[in-house]
Amino acid sequence: VNTTVIRKKGYCTWYGECGKSPTGSYNCYYNGPAIPLKDKKAAAILKGLCPWFFKDSEEPALCCDTVQIDYFQRTMQLPRQFLSRCPSCWHNFVQLYCQSTCSPDQSLFLEVTNVLPYHPKLAMNNTISNGNHNKKVNSIHKVIQMDSNEAAPTCDSIPPDDDLDFQEETLLSEKDINEINPLDTDSTDITIAKPPRNESITAITYYMTPEFADGLFDSCSEVKFPGNNEKVLNVLCAAPTGYCTPCLWLKYLGNPNNGEAPFSIAPVFIDYPIPKKGIIPMNKTTYACDVATGIGIKSTCSCQDCPAVCKPLPPIPTQPKPSTIAGIRSVLFIVTLIYFSLVALFILILAIRYIRNKATAGVGTNVDKVNEEIDNAQNSQASDPKSYHTLRNELADIRSINDSEERCDSSSVLIEAGSVMERTISSYFGRLGVICARHPIIVIIAWIIFVAICSGGLAFTKITTDPVDLWSSPTSRSRKEKNYFDKTFSPFYRTEQIIITAPHSKSSIYTTREGTTQQIEFGPVLQRDILEQVLDLQLHIQDLVGTYKDSNGTIHDVTLEDVCFKPTSPTFSECEIESIFQYFQNNKTLLNKQVYDQDHLFIVADYHDHLLYCTNNPTSVKDIGKFATPCLGTNGAPTNPDTALGGFQGKHYVNASALVITFIVRNHVNDADNAKAIAWEKKFLEFIKNYKNPNLTLAFSAQRSIQDELNRESAADVITILISYLIMFAYVALALGRYSSSVRYFFVDTKITLGLSGVIMVLCSVVCSIGIFSYAKVPITLIIIEVVPFLVLAVGVDNMFILVQALQRDIQQPNEDVEHQIGRVLGSVAPSMLLTSLSEAIAFSLGAISNMPAVRTFSIYAALAVFIDFLLQVTCFVALLSLDTKRQNSNRYDVACCVKSHRVDNTNQGGILYNFFSNYYAPFLLNKVVKTLVVLIFVGLALFAIPQATKVEIGLNQSLSLPKDSYVIKYFDALNEYLHIGAPVYFVVEGPYDYTSIDGQNKICGSSGCSPDSLVQQIYIASEQSNYTYIAETTSSWIDDYLIWIQPVGDIPCCRKLPISKSHYDFCPASEVNSSCVPCLPSKDIGKRPVGKEFIKFLPWFLEDVPGQICAKGGHAAYGSAIKFVPNRKNISATYFMTYHTILKTSKDYIHALKMARTIANNISSVVNTTVFPYSVFYVFYEQYLTMVEDTFLSLGISLGSVFLVTFLLLGLNIAAAIIVTMTVAMIVIDLMALMFFWKISLNAISLVNLVMAIGISVEFCSHIVRAFVVSKQETRLARAKEALSRMGSSVFSGITLTKFGGIIVLAFAKSQIFEIFYFRMYLGIVIFGASHGLIFLPAFLSFFGPARMISEEDAAVMNYLRNKPNRPKTPTEGPNESTALLA
Questions:
Q1: pTM, whole model, 2 decimals?
Q2: What is the distance of C-alpha 1174 from the center of its chain?
């Protein structure tokens, strides 16, 4: 380039404007001295941008005129909205343009590379073509020759070798440049007042030092855009995320294709002068982001815009290592120690008993004496039979005194009082049995009437299926916060989402054609043919039409337009659809657009380039590349690539392996208002389910999907549940009978009618419970329908077997009719039935204290059903048993009772199971070696189950609540595999807060000058530790955007008002051309924050303003619903700040995310001195798990406590018996929880219900055995254990164990995963552990440590005899009160 350019301090490169360019104005070429700025208005504008020019003079000599300054102000308006939140960045950025636009020394660092002739009277339609014009241009003072073959300069280009005539030390600093002799204006012949305007500059090279370029870039590299939580350089730099450099950024800023640069400005970084050209690179001082500029602003950039000013991140707490003792886990070590201690104690007790037994073996005085009295009494037995039986019992009791194993420390007073209570209860039930057996028809009719009345409540039954109502208490914190959020702002949107993959497509490598050449991999779903097919799918869905009925029954059509969310309404009426096709305005023509070079030979841009640009600049109003299409969607809102793409790493969006299309639909608090949305969702699901495309795989879900699938699951498993119950019913009907060897009498011995009647009573008890609570308007849940009948059947069937089998084994006494026999049998077994039923009813009723609605409703329904079932059994079932016994005694067939058999012998028999337990099983189990091993093994299993029980995972995988074949499970899997960002989380500032003061604003905002502990800053710091806090990114902050939006800067400020009257104004959007509009704030307030009423006054306008090219800070799209005002609109009543959680895959992730969000909110609350709480849609479901361990201990502890109390009262105040029952039940529950760990059953509301139910069923397995042991009249513990096992073991085995097994096995084939995991697995565990403890461990344990037996009337007579009999010698082992021995 040959030139006569004057390059010296005080000389310009341009001055004024010479014509319009496609993106602005060309500057006039002028290589003369700088001209003083006389225009005061222009000086005021420039002083606000470049105050350093006015340091020495109010009328500085500059290289820009009033028109340029006005244009300069307008071009800085949009960057100011992005960068001014960081003062250092903004200062450095403005310095870049101040120097190029107005610096009096611009001739030193600006080199003109292209000009065009300018004729003011002719319109200019010249376009820029890469800065090359093959022509020679004559100037007044110079001639610039342009070589069309010269390569365009790059940022680090080096001049030809003949220009390198310098030493590196010759680089002049800013101070050195200032010392150059100023321009001698007297020696020039230039007319300063009127520079020539005959050439337009169309391209320049801007020389600057790398130090300045790096300083500018570093100060701005972390500045955030609060509206979408992106870095500003993602918007202002034409490079993929992570690839932006100072060179790429400045080249982008100087490229006219960005829509802002008026002509080509090519940056060149050199750190040395070029003497032959006279070039000295611009090297103004830059300020790091952590350094205050000192020019009007004293604060540094904020933490989120400048990591250098951030406090050190708090250390992430490390997971505590498991406590160990001698290298073994502490819990395991402790239980091992306890186990071996118990084993040693057990052996010691056995040894002591053995020694004492040897020591007392020869004592027989009392035995001989009583034997003599018995012989005398036997002779007079006919006259006094009671005396004979009494003395026989005395002999047994005295023998028990000599047996050291029969020692008992129970209080005789309690035992005697308990025995009286037992006899009273037995007597009462005996009389009740006689009455019911004598008047069966009246009893049955009375119950039919009662059940019918209760059944009337079914008309008012309301089934709760809403998961929120099921698992979240109305009084819980998360439920209150959800209600507050829904009422104050609006419920979270309904989302209809499709995750699309292309299994047969492959990735491809694309070579970029603009900027730096890079080879970039585009994922399989981003191939053109796949994109076209997916766009067709999206457009088809947008056109779907559903139907719904209004409240009057009229059918209407409903489209997506009718129900969708429109964030920029009324400016734009398009729906919010989050998909990458918004980058192409959902237009297939734009998707297929290809841009060719000038010769139309080569493609220079296509959808690849546009995707690369828009995924990094989603808020851009125009692709600065050759594709030249907006990135904003059809509704003017940006699309976040994190939510529209999936299966990529980091920020490499185009590597995506999944497309995500999300249709956002409005939601309402009132379900009735969602009728339209639900109808459209139904049509959406119907279409997607039937959509066929071999090239695409869809995973999809709608807002209603989970509810639909739960309903489908319930309907699908009805058959499974019915089969399960039918198997149990059939077993009960057949197993109640006692059959002879003759087939002829089979139907005489069966009790099908009685068994079915008993099962119907179970169902009636459930119906009554539901009906009564329905009258009380207590809603029912599916858990009640599915679980309570199973539970009541377990309790009821067991009681039926005990009562029927007791009658079958009983021998009718002489002259005793059937009614009195049944009354007597009922009196003997009803206390045991009362014990189990009352224990369970109280245990369940106390479960109502749970905060979880599902657990609470289950508890109260189950408690009432169990209690009603007990009442039915001791009254109605007794009445039916009386009729059936009379039928059997008269040898009539069951069912067909009119047919009569002619059997003569109708005596009761023991039965096969009874004989097996009595003759084989009991002797084997209670063998000394076997029972010792049993006790040691079961205690060991219980102790070693404790550490495993503590490892049970808490939570519920949401996919488990769905059928195994549900499409929603596939959707959940796709969410976990592909999605890159989690659920939104809102930090809600509740109640009035002082936003109008500087101090109040500083505690909330996140830009320069804000508190380092402000709300925004704390969320930002949390996002920097996302692996621990589960906060994915910093929050979008309306207050930061508002404080920039309201600034009176630029030719067209964002906030303008249109005068309507003297004191009334309307909002005037920046996009509206109206000369009457004036800035909201006076220009003197530039840089100041609005306070007091001024802050609130213009805030509604901010929320109405739609972001655009002139004003990107409009808050309507991002914050339209984020702020709620008090009724008089003089203050803010509530607001939220939104961010996102990271991807949450497991229940543990969800629970920890909730805990961390609350921790962050609590920290914020302590700073702002008002209530701040986090809200996300999943919190209401996972809050229960924050206290699940405590709730579990509380529920189980209360249930066990009630079992202990009732057992103590109804087992004759026998505390040892109560302890044994409670201990055994606890062992069953502990073993069951260990099974949960090994079988991967998590702890949640469903499993907690099952654990509470397990306590109830376990009581059935244990209490009957223990009571039979206590009331046994056998002489030793071993004998009593054998009798209890023989008498009750067969009933427990046949009544509970076998009854349940058939029904449980069927549940394994249920379609529902909940049934298979939480019902089949846990029910199987309950039955196995309950039966093994009740029928194996408990008899063995009782034979060693059984409690004292209950005192009968005959025992009481013997005790009185012994107390009153004089001169009776004591045995060596007998205490002062010999009646104590009888308690054994």
A1: 0.80
A2: 13
